[in-house]
Design a protein that fits this description.
alpha/beta, nine-stranded mixed beta sheet, 352 residues
Length: 352
Amino acid sequence: MTEHAAKKGLTILITTFNASSMIEETLKRLIEMEKVPGLDWDVLIVDNNSSDDTVEKARKFWDNQVELRIINEPQQGTGFAKFKGMSEAKFEFIGIIDQDNWVHSDWMVKAVQYLEQDASAAIICARGYPVFETKKPDWFDRYQANFAVGPQSEKTGATEDLQRFFYNAGCIMRKSAFEEALKVGFVPIMRSRTSNNLLSGEDTELQIIFKLLGWEIHYQDMLRFDHFMPKKRLSVNYFRRLREGMGATSVYLSIYRETMDAFFEGRQRTRINWRQELKKSFKSVIQDPLAALASLFPEKFASNHRVASFWSNLGNFKTRRFLKSDFERTQIELESWLDSWLEKTPLNKHQE
């Protein structure tokens, strides 16, 4: 992060971890896409401790007039890698392209156009289209949004629903909004896809901060990219872990959501009681014994919504039980930080 405002241009941020089999196609799409005339841009790869030849392949493949920068983030997790990349981006516009995101040819032109159209938008979110390495599972279409695929809203433009959030894959973001979050002390608490824990809440966490700072969150259906779905991500076991990760994520995000609701409703925040929430979480797990039983046969019942909900509820319960008093500590620390600047933050300050 610099002390001065980022200059006009676009940094395309790619976070990578063992992406040897796909990084060349990801970069190829960037080289071939239509460019905005006169707009400076660069590519920033944040490698998250790859053990394969991802970095070497990227350096050898990149044959373009614009700069390719490659840095490392030693703390494992895409949330940490994206945070570092956004901090290191040198242009005002930041495109978030995951290692398996292949932008459509008009992505840059439309991304810049949409962000320039509305100065109150902190981020413009996109639509992903799946590209399958193997046969599409029967359950995929029903849960495609869990994989950053499919339409995110029936309407384009700013979301009017306070509790509506989008996946950030393929998005374009305003760095000045991110730097404003840094200025008030934002440090993400979400740890995405680290170890065996498939947490996925860093997108929502950042969008909540943007909303609290008075920015708008937008979605544009015509901002599009292909999302490569490798065989390992299409397994039932991965899907189960993903759903459990979503349940675990909701534990952390519940603190943010309560703060946001209270702030916009002009009321005092309600403190979340760990023991009470643990009991509620346990009841959610045992309330549907048939779903629990069916979950033991995932190959047959993965497409059943009750089974998918059971996995999410189970992830929520396991995380709450594991956190114990750490949840209370995290809540107090987060609330203290939020209170330190929220009372100084006027509503809708970026809207004209």
